[in-house]
Amino acid sequence: MRIGCPKEVKPQEFRVGLTPFAAAEAILRGHDVLIETGAGLGAGFTDDDYTAIGAQIAPDAKSVFDVAELVIKVKEPQAPERAMLREGQVLFTYLHLAPDAAQTRDLLASGVTSIAYETVTDARGGLPLLAPMSEVAGRLAPQVGSWALQKANGGRGVLMGGVPGVRPANVVIIGGGVVGAAAARVAVGMGANVTVMDRSVPRLSYLDDIFMGKLTTQYASAAATAELVQTADMVIGAVLIPGAAAPKLVSRAQLSTMPQGAVLVDVAIDQGGCFETSRATTHQDPVYEVDGIVHYCVANMPGAVARTSTQALGNATLPFLLALAGKGWRQAIRDDAHLRAGLSTHQGRLTSPPVGEALGIEAVTPDQLLAG
Question: 2-119+305-371, what's its fold?
Answer without folding.
Answer: Rossmann fold (3.40.50)
